[in-house]
């Protein structure tokens, strides 16, 4: 059974701070790792993906992957109230289904 | 920008009725998926479809469910005899393949079974 776990929320950070979201996965064969943002009642929206160990930056977002520890994280710098949402970690293989974590609810306080 | 579309946005049905949820994936994508999300719970994989056949399905995807690509653009999910516990958001997703990694999600259909 492939499992994806995320740190429980809700996570509250003040505006302008760094938000750190964590995810662990059980299947060592996983190849690709995704962070999606989901607003209430809406579909998941891709923020970024990573498939190599190390860091990947895209604007205010940085994804970090450590395959040895089976750990992936997302850092959001200069958090804005509009970043308030549930963040979903998804793990997959090429062309195959994603396994989603339960999500971490982030609240950015003005 | 191309996007995945789904219809209807909300479907209300009586228990035991059949429903068909429709999706139009992005036109040059090769892999298609259905996921569901029960209110307050995580997104769960149902089925993947490639080359006109099911490539993978989850335990949730039992005999009550079926998928079809009736023409070159639509991708449908049929639930033959709906149960109360089928009430959820159903998301369609598509993936281009050919080295791309990301799946693009449609806006979802909220299914309410009474």
Question: What does this protein structure show overall?
Answer:
The complex is a heterodimer of chains A (110) and B (114). The model of chain A has no long low-confidence stretch (mean pLDDT 92). Helices cover 0% and strands 55% of the residues of chain A. By secondary structure, chain A is an all-beta fold. In chain A, strand 6 and strand 7 form a beta hairpin. Chain B starts with a strand and ends with a strand. The model of chain B has no long low-confidence stretch (mean pLDDT 93). Chain B is globular. In chain B, a hairpin with a 2-residue loop joins strand 5 and strand 6. Helices cover 0% and strands 49% of the residues of chain B. The interface between A and B is medium-sized, with 24 and 25 residues.
Which properties best describe this structure?
heterodimer; A: 110 residues; mainly beta; six-stranded mixed β-sheet; five-stranded antiparallel β-sheet; globular; B: 114 residues; seven-stranded mixed β-sheet; four-stranded antiparallel β-sheet
List the helices and strands and how they pair.
The complex is a heterodimer of chains A (110) and B (114).
Chain A: E1 4-6, E2 11-14, E3 19-25, E4 32-38, E5 45-50, E6 54-58, E7 61-66, E8 71-76, E9 85-92, E10 98-100, E11 104-109
Parallel strand pairs in A: 2-11
Antiparallel strand pairs in A: 1-3, 3-8, 4-5, 4-9, 6-7, 7-8, 9-10, 9-11
Chain B: E1 5-7, E2 10-13, E3 19-24, E4 31-37, E5 44-50, E6 53-57, E7 65-68, E8 75-79, E9 88-95, E10 104-105, E11 109-113
Parallel strand pairs in B: 2-11
Antiparallel strand pairs in B: 1-3, 3-8, 4-5, 4-9, 5-6, 7-8, 9-10, 9-11
What summary fits the major beta sheet of chain A? Answer: 6 strands, mixed
Mean pLDDT of chain B: 93
How widely separated are the two ends of chain B?
A: 37 Å
Shape designation of chain B? globular
**What percent of residues of chain A adopt helix (DSSP H or I)?**
under 10%
* Largest sheet features of chain B: 7 strands, mixed
Classify the helix fraction of chain B into a percent range.
under 10%
Assembly state (oligomeric): heterodimer
The helix tally of chain A amounts to 0
What percent of residues of chain B are in strands? Answer: over 45%
Order of helices and strands of chain B: EEEEEEEEEEE
Mean pLDDT of chain A comes to 92
Q: SS-based structural class of chain A?
A: mainly beta
> Radius of gyration of chain A from the CA trace?
13 Å
The ordered string of helix (H) and strand (E) elements of chain A is EEEEEEEEEEE
The proportion of residues in beta strands of chain A is: over 45%
Instruction: Give the chain pair forming the largest contact, with residue counts.
Output: A-B, 24 and 25 residues
Report the strand count of chain B: 11
What overall geometry of chain A do the principal axes of the alpha carbons give? globular
